[in-house]
Amino acid sequence: MKHKPEIVALIPLRGGSKSIPYKNIKSIAGKPLCMWVIEEAVRSKMIDKVYASTDSDKIRDVISSYSLPVEVLERGPHLATDTASTESVMLDFAAKTDFDIIVTIQATSPMTKSEDFDSAIKYFLDMSLDSLLTGVRVKKFFWTDEAKPINYNPLNRPRRQDFKGWIWENGAFYITKKNILEKYKCRLGGKTGIYEMSGESGIDIDEPVDWEIMERFLLKRK
Question: Does residue 1 fall inside a structural domain?
Answer without folding.
Answer: no
